[in-house]
Structures are given as structure tokens and as C-alpha cells.
Specification:
Length: 357
């Protein structure tokens, strides 16, 4: 069977990584449709209204042409079927939709299993029914748990011991591998951060952010008083945890690279399901990030040290060699660019997408 080329369905396409991926796909000449239940965005859930994140994509591209959008939840299988019926040209799915808060996953485990696992199984079943055999999946470095070796190669064991959220990613990697005898790529994100350099698109978490960089951005803009650093007694250079922060635009470009790899392989008659680390390969401590972002903002941002956060591991730094080689992809943006872009976004949009510009 010759591979179909057509439209790319992006699930979770109004979210942080999803919306930047939609932009990268459109910039690379792909046709895109977006599915999102808008559960973690400030956009209206009214289906007729284009979500603000997608309006911003149009703004960056200087186009009035709307991006086809469906306010649909992946747990709603009949609605998924209707999308595939309306778009027989869907050739691949970039699957970013899912719940993603580690802490919340401990409090609402069944919601995480329902949305992440049952929702993805629905999606895979519909893809199978419509003979769509290409998927790029948002996985996470959290699948490595507390890895034995830093930097972490993809061959490091994936473990199911860290959190309910992490377990859903581990299970989904297995499910996609089991199902996908065709073409799938699992992208293990390290820590996506920053914003589009235009300052028009960025991360817009609802409520108090769980993650370091959006929290710091809220401190900088005056919405939160100070950062709490979770633990300074780790076996690292300054006692705070090390992570591999990856510019969100590089992360988005990784999805396009993954899709292109699938297309190349299918053209050559090979079909694979591999996992790749999307990371810069550079470890930064929490205090490194506080200082780098303070530099971008132009003043010292206040912080206090507190106890460790449950479930944090000392160091998650990627070995991105395999992704560099096989995806033809490399993180290109610096830490300073990441911080400057995040600050531009937050300064211009202190209330995220609810800001009237
Ligand atoms: C980074 C460091 C915290 C907040 C998680 C998920 C991962 C991915 C990204 C995706 C840690 C410290 C944080 C704060 C702090 N999720 N921190 N004060 O935990 O590495 O990764 O988010 O969808 O899968 O596991 O990211 O940004 O929460 O934390 O000191 O207020 O910052 O302890 O060391 P994490 P993070």
C-alpha cells in the first residue's frame, strides 16, 4: 500500500506544545486540523469560535484562513469518528491531547486513566478503522523514573513507579508499540519552556502553575509573590534539581521532524516504532533557571527554599544523540533565548490568552 499524504490531525492542538506544533506544521507546508476539548485553555468551548491559541497562530502567519477546529474530547469516540468521516484525507495524527499534571494525577487517577489511556485507545481504534497508520505521540522524560545514567539514552529502562501521570505515559508507549505495526514515533519531551519569539504565543496554564518556568513568569509579572524552590539537598552542584529545558519551538519542530522521518521510511518501505528524546542535552538546576530568567527580566526574582516535592528526581538530562541522528533534529535555541521569549510573551500577555491586545 502506498502511503497517503494529506492532512495532519493534531490532538490537543490548542495547548502549549500542540499550538506551537500546529504553527511549525503550517510553516512546513502541511495541512492541519485541530481537535481539543479546551479543558486546560482559557478559550471559549463554543465550537463555532476559533480558540485564541489558533487565532494567534493565524496572526503569526498573517493569514485570515481559519484552521479547522473541533471542540472534541478524545474520550468521545462517536465525535472522533465524525471528524475522520469529514476528513478522509487525514494521513497522520500528532497526539498531544492528555492530562499532564503529576500532582493532580495522584488525586484523580481514574480521570488520568480515562482520558490518557481510554481516550488514546479510542483514537487508535478510529485510526485503525479509517486506515490511518501514522502517529507521533507526546511522551515524557518522566518514563525514565530516576535513571541509572545521565545523560539518559533512549535505551534506559522505562519504569512505572513515579506517578499516575507517568504511568499513563509508560502504558501508552507500550500500547502504541503493540498496536502500531505501522509507523509511530514516541517523543519523550524533557522540559519544554519559553514561548514563540513573536511574544504572541506561549504557555497559558489555568490557575497556579505547577511547572517551574510558568510559575517564575507569573512572579515576574506580579501575579505571584515569590517562587518556592522545592529542595536544596539534592546531590547536584547547587543542591537543586537538574532538568533539560528545551525551547518550545525546538520541541514543536521535533514533531515535524518525526513526521518527515515516518514519511521517509514509508517511502522506503520500512515501518518503525521508535522513541526519541526531545531534549537539548544540557542540564540546568532550578537556581540556574531562576538566575537566567532574572537576567531576561532585568531584576532579581524573589524565591525561598522549601522541602522537596514528592516524586522529583535529582537529574533528568537527555542524551539527544539518537534524535539528532535519526530525526535530523537538534535543539537550536539557547537558554537566554528561551528566557527572553518567555518574558516577552508574559510581559505582553500578563493574563495569557485572556489579555486583550
Ligand atoms: C522542574 C524543577 C521542581 C516548580 C514535569 C513532568 C514532565 C513534564 C514537565 C509534561 C523541579 C522545581 C518546580 C516550583 C520548583 N510534563 N520546581 N518550584 O517536574 O521536571 O516535569 O513537567 O507535560 O513530564 O514530570 O517540571 O517544571 O514541574 O519542575 O522548585 O514551583 O523545578 O522541583 O526540580 P518536572 P517542573
Amino acid at each position: 500500500m502506498s502511503p497517503k499524504t494529506g492532512t495532519i490531525l493534531v490532538t490537543g492542538g490548542c495547548g502549549y506544545v500542540g499550538s506551537h506544533t500546529v504553527l511549525s506544521l503550517l510553516e512546513s507546508g502541511y495541512k492541519v486540523i485541530v481537535l481539543d476539548n479546551l479543558s486546560n485553555t482559557s478559550s471559549s468551548a463554543e465550537p463555532a469560535v476559533t480558540p485564541e491559541a489558533l487565532k494567534r497562530v493565524q496572526k503569526i502567519l498573517s493569514t485570515d484562513e481559519p484552521i479547522p477546529f473541533y471542540a472534541v474530547d478524545i474520550t468521545d469516540k462517536p465525535a472522533l469518528v465524525r471528524i475522520f468521516e469529514s476528513h478522509p484525507d487525514i494521513s497522520a495524527v500528532i497526539h498531544c491531547a492528555g492530562l499532564k499534571s503529576v500532582g493532580e494525577s495522584g488525586r484523580r487517577p481514574l480521570d488520568y486513566y480515562n482520558v490518557n489511556i481510554a481516550g488514546t485507545v479510542n483514537l487508535l481504534q478510529v485510526m485503525e478503522d479509517f486506515d490511518v497508520r501514522r502517529m507521533v505521540f507526546s511522551s515524557s522524560a518522566t518514563v525514565y523514573g530516576d535513571p541509572p545514567k545521565i545523560p539518559i539514552p533512549e535505551t534506559s529502562p522505562i519504569v512505572a513507579s513515579m506517578s499516575t501521570y507517568g504511568r499513563t505515559k509508560v502504558f501508552l508507549e507500550h500500547i502504541i508499540k503493540d498496536f502500531y505495526r505501522w509507523s509511530a514515533t514516541l517523543l519523550r519531551y524533557f522540559n519544554p519552556a519559553g514561548a514563540h519569539p513573536s511574544g504572541i504565543m506561549g504557555e497559558d496554564p489555568q490557575g497556579i502553575p505547577n511547572n517551574l518556568m510558568p510559575y517564575l513568569a507569573q512572579v515576574a509579572v506580579g501575579n505571584l509573590e515569590k517562587l518556592t524552590v522545592f529542595g536544596q539537598d539534592y546531590p547536584t552542584k547547587d543542591g537543586t534539581c537538574i532538568r533539560d529545558y528545551l525551547h518550545v519551538v525546538d520541541c514543536a519542530d521535533g514533531h515535524v521532524a518525526a513526521l518527515k522521518k515516518i514519511e521517509r521510511e514509508e517511502a522506503a518501505g520500512t515501518f518503525e516504532c521508535n522513541a526519541y528524546n526531545l531534549g537539548a542535552g544540557t542540564g540546568c538546576s532550578v537556581l540556574d533557571m531562576v538566575h537566567a530568567f532574572s537576567k531576561a527580566v532585568g531584576r532579581d526574582l524573589p524565591y525561598v527554599i522549601s522541602a522537596r516535592r514528592l516524586g522529583d528526581v535529582p537529574n533528568l538530562t537527555a542524551d539527544p544523540t539518537l534524535a539528532n541522528k535519526e530525526l535530523n533534529w537538534k535543539a537550536t535555541k539557547t537558554l537566554d533565548e528561551m528566557c527572553a521569549d518567555l518574558w516577552r510573551w508574559q510581559r505582553n500577555n500578563p493574563s495569557g490568552y485572556r489579555t486583550q491586545n
